[in-house]
Write a structure and sequence with these properties.
single chain, 268 residues, alpha+beta, Muramoyl-pentapeptide Carboxypeptidase, domain 2, four-stranded antiparallel β-sheet, three-stranded antiparallel β-sheet, 10 helices, 9 strands, globular
Length: 268
Amino acid sequence: MKTKTLILSLMLALAVFLPAPAACGPEWTYPIPPNILANKEGYLTLVNRERLLSGDYEPRDLVTLTVKRTVGDTQMRKTVSRALENMFAAAQNEYGLTLYVKSGYRSYHTQRTMYFNRVESMGYDDGLVQYPGASEHQTGLCADILNYEWTKKDGMNYRFAETTEAKWMAEHCWEFGFIIRYESDKEEITGIKFEPWHLRYVGKECAKYIWDNHLSLEEFTLEWEGYIASWEAQGGDFEALVMSLNLPNKVIVVETSEDGEEEISAYY
């Protein structure tokens, strides 16, 4: 029977297995690291009328929210659920504010039903319910968040921004990886009316950058996609750069058998 006597975690030499960052192109100067912009987890996915999600898209890691909510089985992606827990706790413990999730993940088919019901009742598309495939709710990355008073109202409007809870979220949500997705002065860019309750998860680094520079997600996406295109036009290889930065750890395990012989195994 073998017993493990030593476990060492070592970074592999970049030059041996993958090209070093310098070999992937010119110097990278954009404030957001390329491995984040690679968007492997989909946190930066832009969704709107020009960039529709497919009807069969569904997040792979949905979980039921544990924070206060108006509907018991509201779901979000796992990372977003944890971020909401942290934000709700900070609002309550540090400022005495209680937040409620009114809406989280919605499937394409649910959105489709809501959209056409709205159009039928109004007689036209008033822009308050998104076209199927154009709703961020399908990503599992956004939530409509209200205070108790507003959970009792039939509808939502821009006056929610005047509440203490909305002001706190506008000032602090980036600390937890969220942005106010549809700002009042970005309506011409987003095509959506001001929604101070609609928070979208993009991760802490990107949320801070977007907040610091007062960008919409459309503007941010256009900026970083443009930077990558320009960087590659100068000879850069974005995929190779991302691979070099995502190099995994090599774990060396030294096992000793009962007769004293050692055996070394490597895991990646």
